[in-house]
Amino acid sequence: MTTDPVLERFRPGADYRMFIGGDWIAASDSFEAVDPSLGTSWAAIGNGTAADVETAVAAARKALLGWRRSSPSTRQAILAAIADRIEENAPLFARLLPTENGRPVREVGIADVPASAAIYRYYAGLARSHRGDQIPVEDPDSLIYTVREPLGVIAAILPWNSPLITTANKLAPALACGNTVVLKPSEFASASVLEFVTLIADLLPPGVVNVVTGFGAGVGSALVGHPDVAKVTLTGGGPTARAVMATAAGALTPTAMELGGKSAMIVAEDADLGRAVADAALGIYLANGEACIASSRLLLHEGIAVEFLDRLAALARSIVVGDALDPATQVGPMVSRPHFERVLGHVRKAREEGVRVLAGDEDLGLAPVNEKGFFLRPTLLHDPSGAADVVTSEVFGPVTVAETFVDYDEAVLRANATRYGLAAGVWTTDLARAHRIAGSLQAGIVWVNKWFDLPAGAPMGGVKDSGFGRELSWETMLEYSAPKTINIDLGAPRFPLWG
Ligand code: NAD
Predict the structure, then answer these.
(1) Residue range 5-25: average pLDDT?
(2) Are 355 and 383 in contact (CB under 8 A)?
(3) What is the number of structural domains in the chain?
(4) Pocket test for ligand 1, best of 100, 101, 186 (most atoms within 8 A of CB)
(5) Residue 280: which CATH number?
(6) Which one of 75, 130, 345, 407 is at 20 to 30 Å from 324 when CA atoms are compared?
(7) For the whole model, what pTM was predicted?
């Protein structure tokens, strides 16, 4: 039970403006940001227009002329300074993120802040080693090499669930390669991005980073379809990805897609159960389960399923749900009322399909001040045959569903039988089994005896409907730059065809 209702919520000094060409621009219209722990409005966000997008893209194009020629050491120093600013302002984010999207405050200092800072530092390093190749060819009179050039203006469309980290995943490599950027934050997490940009604005020349706020169908669509955008990168859901790709196709603009997941954790009969249960809880209840890589599916060997489920259900029932700003809170509210209703709808449907609820029906135990918030209990479902819709649909909340299996090939087949392919994992003490299963899982990331470890350097991204393109890695530098081939004649004789 949350006992302290007087928590220090984040409050902006004024209504939020957009950041375009180094200036803070008021939008002609605004919408409300709602604190999900209270269910009440806490800030006004500018609702931008296509005209604002036009100005932002023009500013980014103008800034590109200088920024693309900036030295690698300049970019390195700026990216490293951004990392420092994030760390120096950890207390601000510890109030802002819980107020805006319901992230439990205890997670901000151990996840959002260090992970974001690490991403900028990682790309600060890569900015110095980003280079082309010398191409070996047969002709001794040719010297051919490539230089890697920035693409131009990058449109980065962001989700609400981890605004600081998803911004870092796009901004850091884009800037490291010499691109300029227009960020379009989620309508549910715009303040986090605007406050972050406020903190770093003086580090960057005007127009190198711009932020337009508003809704997907308005500013989002105008930005994605803008002919001067060189690449669109989206982190979001599948329906959004389809709409974004269709719009980008109109301008022949390439895209990169970081999308959803339904990631299965396979637990063998020889697994260390204590660790596996703890990882299963971490995998689905961290970040309120609102994580693309959440372990939202459990495939349990019949030999350990009963004990595993008893332990995980007891753990889930012990979790403290409450105000995101309360340090005692382990799971906070869902980001918004529509999302809350969506998650509840998945659980309701599962019940109708006969799925058992092993944890999740307990009393919420909320403080009176939180009664209009968007809370639900950490939920554990059991559908031994894996036939229910919730087994393959992304819920994006603190809800996981367990199935049981006997045969390992069957477990892999079932894990792969979803449209998603973002993450997966296997818990076993048998080395050969670990390798065999890891090799057979259709996912961009496979963890063995761990979950949620995403260090900068290890490529992050999905297969199938989880998207394409990789973030968080050296490969990402290739996605934000293009090779230019320089082919030089060293005095080769001409073919005598035209004299
Ligand atoms: P969403 O798809 O609803 O929105 C994402 C962004 O797209 C928002 O900024 C939105 O305004 C914008 N948008 C919507 N329609 C648009 C359009 N037609 N044109 C341009 N922009 C448009 O996603 P969300 O609810 O913010 O985030 C949750 C989803 O994101 C989940 O599916 C989750 O799995 C996924 N996600 C993936 C990763 C990853 O790295 N793979 C990380 C975090 C979240």
Answers:
(1) 92
(2) yes
(3) 2
(4) 186
(5) 3.40.309.10
(6) 345
(7) 0.97
